[in-house]
Amino acid sequence: MKGATPGGRAINPYVAQLTFTFLNILTWAIIARALLSWLPIDQSSPLYQLLFRVTEPIIDPFRRVIPRAGMIDLSPMMAILALLVMQQLVAMLVVPA
């Protein structure tokens, strides 16, 4: 039985859902970090440190490539875009029911 792609490659729906959920959580973590950066919050707080440790490995490669636009850092937006593309790729690889 062929999968969802022309080459016949497909992944288990449970693995796809787990991956999709993980990518979704990362997306929301980046959004939360971006929103918290606008607030006068203590950067040593446990919540901020958790968000920083989880999202920095995803945002940092984009930050090294994309120049800042004045005071605006576009790297979180590009990281979110990359995560959304990965979610779509996962959705395309799911075995049809």
Automatic annotation (TrEMBL):
Keyword Methyltransferase in record: no
Keyword match S-adenosyl-L-methionine: no
Protein's name according to its UniProt entry: YggT family protein
Domain of life where this protein originates: Bacteria
Residue ranges crossing the lipid bilayer per the database entry: 21-41, 77-95
This protein's UniProt keywords: Membrane, Transmembrane, Transmembrane helix
Homology family: Belongs to the YggT family.
GO cellular component: membrane
InterPro entries, per database record: CCB3/YggT
